[in-house]
Recover the amino acids of this structure.
């Protein structure tokens, strides 16, 4: 049987769910690869990936995908994976330079400003160079390590996950494992749960490796992983996911709230 092609983005907040694949586990069954978040949805839709860790905002746009149960990447409180950096108060922001790799961040940012301020933001794709972004525009959207690496400065930092939780009282579900239509393997979810268990059991190794690669303080990485992120798709995370889709449909970002199909 051909190996199943598994794609994911290797930001630190997503590493625990992909840790087993990154370290070569079940290499007889899966071929792993890493891509920008916006590329993953295209590869899955085109049939160039069989399973992908997709931003939740992209899932309703791909017909026939099924979701693996019990696993997600979700923020809690003031998580730093998606941040808005501005010099002004949030209510004064109307134009934002955005990292074009984050469909999830763009969707969440649009929703928050529509819901809170009734403003449709002017979003300008730019390479994630904060100094230039803020020089040319009123605010900047950063994701992943570019967000984690940012130190305090003469600007305001807003955690979009924290803003979402404050608005909805629900966690912000950022990513799910999506399986392309027609792909099947007995006990498929077992291998993905195994990858997450491996990542959680060796979290200190993961933290040291990630912090060293990115030049980050290990204590900060540990604090984010332990205090501001969860990887288990439980009832409250499902409600957060449903609320995201409800508001996306309300504002015309998707045609209707999707009925997700979970792979049993």
């Amino acid at each position: 049987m051909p190996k199943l092609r598994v794609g994911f983005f290797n930001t630190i907040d997503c590493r625990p769910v992909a840790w087993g694949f990154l370290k070569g586990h079940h290499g007889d069954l899966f071929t792993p690869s890493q891509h920008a978040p916006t590329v993953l949805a295209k590869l899955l839709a085109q049939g160039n990936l069989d399973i992908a860790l997709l931003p939740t905002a992209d899932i309703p746009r791909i017909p026939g995908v099924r979701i693996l149960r019990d696993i997600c990447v979700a923020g809690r409180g003031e998580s730093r994976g998606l941040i808005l950096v501005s010099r002004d108060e949030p209510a004064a922001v109307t134009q934002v330079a955005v990292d074009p790799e984050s469909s999830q961040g763009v969707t969440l940012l649009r929703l928050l400003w529509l819901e809170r301020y009734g403003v449709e933001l002017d979003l300008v794709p730019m390479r994630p160079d904060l100094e230039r972004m803020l020089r040319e525009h009123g605010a900047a959207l950063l994701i992943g390590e570019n967000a984690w690496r940012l130190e305090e400065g003469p600007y305001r930092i807003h955690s979009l996950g924290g803003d979402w939780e404050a608005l909805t009282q629900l966690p912000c579900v950022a990513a799910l494992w999506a399986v392309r239509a027609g792909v099947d393997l007995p006990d498929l979810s077992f291998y993905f749960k195994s990858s997450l268990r491996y990542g959680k059991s060796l979290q200190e190794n993961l933290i040291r490796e990630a912090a060293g690669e990115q030049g980050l303080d290990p204590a900060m990485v540990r604090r984010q992983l332990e205090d501001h992120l969860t990887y288990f798709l439980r009832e409250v995370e499902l409600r957060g996911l449903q609320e995201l889709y409800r508001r996306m449909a309300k504002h015309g970002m998707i045609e209707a709230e999707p009925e997700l199909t979970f792979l049993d």
Remarks:
- Residues 13 and 187 are 26 Å apart (CA to CA).
